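Researcher: Here's the sequence for the chain we discussed earlier.
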Amino acid sequence: MVARVNTVAFQGIEVLGIDVQVQMSGGIVAFTVVGLPDKAVGESRERVRASLHALGLALPAKRITVNLAPADVLKEGSHFDLPIALALLTVMGVLPDVEMARYVALGELALDGALTPVAGVLPAAIDALAQERGLICPAACGGEAAWAGPGLDVLAPVNLLALINHFKGSQVLTPPKPRLQEEEARPPDLRDVKGNETAKRALEVAAAGSHNLLMVGPPGSGKSMLAARLPGLLPPLDPAEALEVSMIHSVGGLLEGGRLLRQRPYRAPHQSASLPALVGGGSRAKPGEISLAHQGVLFLDELPEFPRPLLEALRQPLETGKAVVSRANHHVTYPARVQLVAAMNPCRCGHLDDAALACARAPKCAADYQSKISGPLFDRIDLHIDVPAVSPADLSLPPPAEGSAEIAARVAVARAIQAERYAGQGGARPLRTNAEADGELLERVAGPDASGRALLTEAAERLKLSARGYHRVMRVARTLADLDGAEGVRRRHIAEALSYRRIAPGR
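Model: Thanks. This is the structure I predict for it:
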């Protein structure tokens, strides 16, 4: 007899159906797992054996073969424990095979038979609902699975014994309820920032259109302080965005208690981060920081201190909104539609504009320092602003009257205008903000009036703007018009958008 139980494997956030087949036959006593398992899957033999022993069940003295089909797909992770155990219980006659065919199962087993959380429950639940099957997962992941839809039959036992009792009819498992991330403390308020009014305006524009932002200034001028206050200006995730972002975090194993995210992610990796940590990859192709920041903010402080190859690897995800990880045996794509916010000093010592503090190598040190960032990466950043040091006179002033709440209200209005404008646009990947508009659509919605077009053309020639830079100016101008409540893009919007362009080093 061969028993079968459905489970899944993951390639990025894509779900692949896996058929767990268990056969018991005569011959030399053995317990073998085949089908291209990794070490964690191979070790499931001992966890399953111990879990069954904790229930008072012993494996028969037979040759046990577990096949994970299709056999040419790499199987990774500990979530194969539960389906292997269920298939064994089915072939031993403990569980009904007809019932097992109705479910997709995933979960890790402890040695005492308890079910511990695993990654990827949310995408697995959505896939199970599409196949009109139920889902069996650990109790800690039940709230996550329940978000797949009301039509999904979710069984979330705390241990293997509770699941067996449920199928035997001696215990009924309560369906889990969807769980949201607990309300976090309010992000820092922009009212705490004194001075730097130009930087605050740029931060508002960046939030309104989801534009990339680069801040250049001496140490202590408030660059990191401003970046930390950007999440307080952004609207919360809508339901579709929350589901998409939570799927990525679920695959990465970062959903605490199975709770879906409600706030936009804010990721700030250190300069020592590796390429797989930032872009994704590694031996098991996990999502990187740029994917974990999907639909949120990726903050890179001290931008030139990041290794050059790592910064160059950001160019493709920033342009396409996808991080593609290629390996010899598989090819994985993660969503990476992020808002990049970067900060840097003008030179290594940071005091280029202050003759009393600047080092003896100024201004050559500034050219060397800024040249660590390539022109193509500069070109992908919409807003470039200088953040000067705050004077003691500004620090002694009372807090400004306008804080994050007032600016966030204007940002919300601008975002609502963009949502209405781009409704139904973009096909499979719906557009939400001006930063995502491109091609003929961008020309239609952001084409300036005659005087604005003349100014843009003249500036593009004098500043030697690339085609990418030209279009990014149009996107920023469209956002400025939305903040003004203007129907069309005018000359003043083009002029302000041009003021945020910075000539890349070496030009």
